[in-house]
Amino acid sequence: MSSAALILAAGESERFGGFPKALLHTGERTAVRRIAETVLDEGFDPVKVVAGAHRGPIAHEVRGLPVEVVDAENWYEGRTASIQAGLASLPADHDILFWPVDHPFVAQRTVETLAAVGREDPLGVWFIPTYEGRGGHPVLWRSVVRPHILELRTDAPLRSLLPEFGPQVRRFSVDDPAVVANVDTPEEYRLARDAWTARGEE
Fold this sequence. Notes:
The protein is built from 7 helices and 10 strands. The chain is of the alpha/beta class. The radius of gyration is 16 Å and the shape is globular.
């Protein structure tokens, strides 16, 4: 299986007062750099970072890494618009690990598990880690999912596709609360960071 990684960092971060969530601190690294280094360590290739409102500082943050920053010129149309920009830059025959930067504290072991589940299940096409019954991120898509996402309206949520794939959507439990820790506000960031620090992870 050839697997690429798509890191989503295109939003305006309005609820952070315009400060890019990609640049939030996760230990000694920023969120986007930690995520990029994690997927590189796991052998995903190519690795693309989708940037929009804050392209300059995000590109600066991943300098020196073998990743490409993709411009989502119509990022303001919706999250799916930015995802589509990233997908269009990836090889059509690659499976894709999709990781939004608003889930910056996911453990490396969770990424390892996600990749392993994908390798071991030839029938699944959409792999979702869960924690206490809730689905989270990152997720893994088979290449067959790609055209369905590209055909969505730019403001349509990805979850609208899940019924289409039915039993081919695979959910699996992980012992990692960070998969459901969606960091959209400063308070959510503080809670997720403190929980991550308490777990002693990097």
